[in-house]
Amino acid sequence: MKGRMTEVGAPPTWWMGALSDSNLSLDEMAAIDHCHVDDALRTRLIDVPLPPGAYGAFECLHGFDDHAAFATEVLLIARNHYGVASTVFVERLSGWRRRDEARLRKWLSSCRDRYRREAKRLIASGQRDLARLHEKFATIFAAGALAIKLGILPWSYREVANALLTCERAHVELVADASPSRTPSAHPLNARALLNEHVLKHGGEFVDLRRRLLSLTQNHDHRTCVGYMNRGPDGSDELLFSNAKLLEICGSRGALRQLKRQLKAEGALLDGELRPSVRRTVWANGDREQVIAIRARALSRQPTFAPARQGLRSISNRREHDSVNTR
């Protein structure tokens, strides 16, 4: 609020984070009016792009048929329970503050420190000072971590940190894409080579869905899985990756988009009607996961894929051998 000369002490202040959506990014809106965007604005209006393969604004539909049905359910939950979690959060936060404010402040400060350290290690930009951006995301992490500690959110600290790190990294890459001064080295152009290298190095660790599907009792993380081998609907072998893993392999969203365009142009990307991803059955109970599906033979033409091809053949031979023994 504005202060008056007759007032004693500093005027009241407030701070609130707002989550909004827009068809255009900050840089895109500025470009329309030929305006320059100062980096101070980017740390106040932080653009976070939708994840590749998203269903509208959602990364996962949690079993619903489409994003419209899921959005209807989310709105219904919000109408019926609006304010419940926030009220309990404030009550428990206030209670801790009354009991031991010093310990509360120390705990929140340690949360922010942990996030800042990890963000500095994982996210970098040759053109921007990201200190203020790290600070803002660190505050969000501390708030989420506090909600977990107070029993409000059912997530883990790692899940919250990974989600925020993903959003922050996506923002940095989005701005780098929009910056006219970026150099070619800002994006790894040879994403195909990076994928070949990953398959060469980790092909033997791929989950072979052609032999058996994953049991629900297995400790398996789809997002971080190195990859899957699968028999596609047309009978051909395909390699499957979560979008998160493929993004990690490529190193940036720009490189990932380039890889998808290249594979699609070659007919090697098995995409859906509306998005460059498909759903494949991964779990033994019939549950499916959203994946990027690539024809195995498209990579097998690359020299670096030869050892992995041998691995595929040996697995295929074992499968035929097992089938003969069964018969």
Draw up the topology in text.
Elements: H1 26-32, H2 39-42, H3 67-81, H4 84-122, H5 131-149, H6 157-178, H7 191-202, E1 207-208, E2 228-231, E3 237-241, H8 243-250, H9 253-265, E4 278-281, E5 288-295, H10 296-300, H11 306-326
Parallel strand pairs: 1-2
Antiparallel strand pairs: 2-3, 3-5, 4-5
Helix pairs in contact: 4-5, 5-6
N/C terminus separation: 81 Å
The DSSP helix count reads 11
The shape is globular
Helix/strand order, N-terminal first? HHHHHHHEEEHHEEHH
Helix fraction, binned, reads: 40-55%
Residue stretches low in confidence (pLDDT < 50, at least 5 long) are 181-189, 301-327
Structural domain count: 2
Features:
single chain; 327 residues; alpha+beta; five-stranded mixed β-sheet; 50% helix; globular; disordered C terminus
Task: Describe this structure in a few short sentences.
The protein is α+β, with helices and mostly antiparallel strands and 327 residues long. The protein has helices at 26-32, 39-42, 67-81, 84-122, 131-149, 157-178, 191-202, 243-250, 253-265, 296-300, 306-326; strands spanning 207-208, 228-231, 237-241, 278-281, 288-295.
